[in-house]
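Appendix C. Worked example: UDP-glucose 4-epimerase
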Amino acid sequence: MKILVTGGLGYIGSHTVVQLLQNNYEVIIIDNLSNSSFTTLEGICSITNKSPKFSRLDLRNPLKVQQFFDEHPDIQGVIHFAASKAVGESVEKPLLYYENNLNTLIFLLQEMRRRNLNNFIFSSSCTVYGQADLLPIDENAPVKTAESPYGNTKQIGEEIIKDFSKSEKQFKAIALRYFNPIGAHPSARIGELPMGIPQNLVPFITQTAIGKRDKLSVFGDDYQTADGTAIRDYIHVMDLAEAHMVALERLIKEKQAKNYEVFNIGTGKGSSVMEVIKVFEKVTGEPLNYELTSRRPGDVEAAFADTTKANQELGWKAKHSLEEALISAWAWEKRLAEAEKNEI
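Step 2, the predicted output written as structure tokens:
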């Protein structure tokens, strides 16, 4: 079975491609390399001993998208990761985010409709909940007004898919609302590869520990939490990748209760920023230079998942610990540093 993975050289996409290849799916990747590296494809191949097909393509071009599907008529499912994802950048460049994150989705769905292609998984986010009224957050929690254009594109994207699913009765879709992916493949051959200054906590931690960054900024120490720092649900990227494969099999085997479903993908446990720092220092033996600073606009105080629905209906559950995720992230950072040294 051939599966299209858009954004398949990105962080979550690449780990999902590995999972699919290791479970004997045939994979074709689309990526425009705007926020990823071609070297990731080498990592995928070295892990799996398989070579997925790759097409460098910008999904914002509808004629190119149509041509791609003309050339690959045997695709049987689509996992859609390709999107811009930096919250701060989305505030500065909202039109870029609306164009990139929504037009690409629409063009994909148009081609799927034309070709009667019905299995679709959407990369969504817990940002749709904002600061939830109740913790942990389940799928029935209200979707709050978005704090950023990025968050809004995820909300609108879900609405587009939901409406499309109502109009096309054969179409089947699952939106996975991720919490906070961290870590890397245990081989350290692929991992999170931020372009420029990291927007996420763990790569900032590892880059500080390796010496790429002078210090780590902890944004806010006055939240109503045990240590004053914000709480998030940190999920190992390998668990997240497995969730995509399980969701795909649910679509293919027609196990859905309805043709559009939403699942939270997290661990069900919240960890504060300071907890993550302390665990990293403990498992790696690397002291971190960090400073407490003011809150960032748009950051919520606490968010962690109620994963009951994913556990029961998908038959999926996160297996990896925070410690394992941080050890793998550190191994990946050290491998990157070694590769850079060898290039010099």
